[in-house]
Design brief:
Blueprint lengths: L4 E7 L4 E7 L2 E8 L13 H17 L7 E6 L13 E2 L4 H7 L1 E5 L2 E8 L3 E3 L16 E3 L2 H15 L8 E5 L4 E6 L5 E7 L1 H10 L17 H14 L1 H14 L4 H22 L1 H4 L5 E4 L3 H15 L3 E3 L2 H20 L1
Length: about 350
């Protein structure tokens, strides 16, 4: 990466973040708790206001002319609820395809600032196919995770290049779990998404299990609980294993902390089974399976995946995880300028 100063904007469901990136390192970050769920359909775009506030804050800290700073945006900022609705590019897609699919957006209230918005990536057959269900389970979409791929690649190419010499997989649990297939040159050949994080949140807050688990999510999941959860999901299924959380409360079989761990563990175990069964993870062509995400989830997924898939599974360092989206967005932004 060159020495230009960049601001990388990332928008999600619940927040909007902006980071200053110099020489591949994040030097400042600001976040507002406003996301695409806060945007109404009447022309009022709370996300645009959040982007404006992020930039104003960072420009004031940097003390430079806003027009002299490169800005790139990714994630849901490229959706209909963000800054501009960009169509996903079709996988396989590398930096060139993402660059061609990007656009420049200028805020009408601050037209001197040009923001390069990156598109997401779509996996699957041509949507023009008259058979709407043709290959339906192959189809997938992502917005923002492509920057994580390129951020991981940018960092590891300097610190651990052997991990990227062959095709590799990225597993990133969160509200949605993403399994992403990547070629050695950084081309993303496809993605596979589950609703694990949102399923856990829904079970925890919108069912009778709300009475049986702590409000705060589990900060760790002990390995014996993960093992028991994996066996329970395999033998009885997720829904029965989830209901047992309530039984364990009524019978006193588990305390509140253990019940919280159990509920998180069974969703994680179900998701890990799904990922382990996927043809990509079973294909030895993918020499490395790199696991990111928030520390508690990362540790749980790594434990279960490594038990089933062996030493190809590796945990990403915290620094790589924290910087991946911003560093990757900047790398793709630089490619778009070249």
């Amino acid at each position: 990466m060159n020495s230009e100063m960049w601001i990388a904007l990332d928008g999600g469901t619940t927040n909007t973040r902006a980071s200053v990136v110099e020489n591949g390192k994040i030097t400042d970050t600001v976040k507002f708790d406003v996301g695409v769920r806060d945007t109404r359909g009447d022309g009022d775009n709370a996300v645009k206001a959040a982007v404006r506030a992020c930039l104003d804050t960072l420009f004031a800290r940097i003390g430079l002319d806003p027009a002299s700073v490169n800005c790139v945006a990714s994630g849901m900022l490229g959706s209909e609820a963000g800054l501009v609705n960009l169509p996903h590019v079709l996988a396989p897609a590398g930096a060139e395809e993402l660059a061609k699919g990007s656009v420049i957006w200028r805020d009408p209230l601050n037209p001197g600032v040009a923001i390069r918005i990156l598109p997401g990536i779509r996996t699957g057959p041509d949507l023009a196919n008259p058979d709407k269900f043709a290959g339906s389970l192959v189809q997938d979409i992502m917005r923002g995770e492509e920057t994580q791929v390129w951020g991981v690649r940018e960092t590891l190419s300097a610190t651990d290049p052997e991990a990227l010499n062959s095709p590799w997989l990225l597993v990133w649990p969160g509200s949605h779990t993403k399994l992403i297939a990547v070629e050695a040159d950084g081309t993303i050949t496809g993605s596979f998404t589950t609703l694990a994080g949102e399923t856990y949140s829904a079970l925890k807050s919108a069912t009778l299990l709300k009475r049986s688990v702590p409000e705060e999510p589990a900060r760790q999941i002990e390995e014996p609980i993960l093992d028991k959860a994996a066996r329970a999901v395999e033998s009885t299924g997720l829904m029965r294993a989830a209901f047992w959380t309530r039984v364990a409360d009524i019978s006193g079989g588990l305390n509140a902390q253990e019940r919280g761990q159990w509920l998180s563990a069974i969703v994680t175990a179900e998701d890990a089974w799904c990922l382990t069964s996927h043809p990509w993870t079973r294909n030895r062509r993918f020499a490395s399976i790199l696991v990111g995400g928030e520390p508690t989830r990362q540790s749980a997924y790594y434990y279960l995946l490594e038990k089933n898939l062996g030493n190809r599974v590796r945990k990403l360092d915290a620094e790589v995880i924290q910087s991946a989206a911003a560093v990757g967005a900047v790398r793709l932004g630089q490619w778009s300028k070249s």
